[in-house]
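Inverse folding, one chain.
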């Protein structure tokens, strides 16, 4: 393999434990994909403070589009992490809150958010050094 080798290699399927349905770790990837995505983390962090209406969530989460927020809360609701409540008013009012399962996740997500905030300058500097040392390797 040369120093400029960039081909991605993977382990054979028979070595991947999640390639077998009976393996106990098979659900981990699916769960981590949900709770590890950028918008889900931010929604969970915001809902940790209590119930929010849709527009409150959208205003609190910088950069999230209406469509992405809709998809994110639906996915979190489907996974049993968020409860959506519709109130019989005209117009209908809707709020979102964490379920007991979702609330159990907040300390972990909050710790991750706090770590990210505390280390963003260090990471930005590391990226700058890497990008300077490896021009033309855009890996974003």
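Residues assigned per position:
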């Amino acid at each position: 393999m040369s120093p400029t080798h960039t081909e991605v290699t993977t382990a054979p399927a028979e070595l991947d434990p999640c390639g077998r349905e009976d393996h106990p770790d098979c659900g981990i990837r699916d769960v981590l994909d949900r709770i590890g995505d950028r918008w889900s983390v931010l929604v969970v962090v915001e809902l940790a403070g209590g119930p929010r209406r849709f527009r409150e969530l959208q205003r609190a989460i910088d950069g999230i589009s209406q469509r992405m927020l809709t998809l994110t809360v639906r996915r979190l609701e489907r996974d049993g992490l968020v409860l959506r409540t519709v109130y019989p008013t005209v117009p209908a009012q809707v709020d979102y809150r964490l379920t007991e399962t979702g609330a159990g996740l907040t300390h972990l997500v909050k710790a991750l958010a706090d770590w990210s905030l505390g280390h963003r300058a260090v990471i930005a500097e590391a990226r700058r050094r890497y990008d300077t040392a490896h021009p033309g390797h855009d890996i974003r």
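The two ends are 24 Å apart (CA to CA). The CA atoms of residues 131 and 139 lie 9 Å apart.
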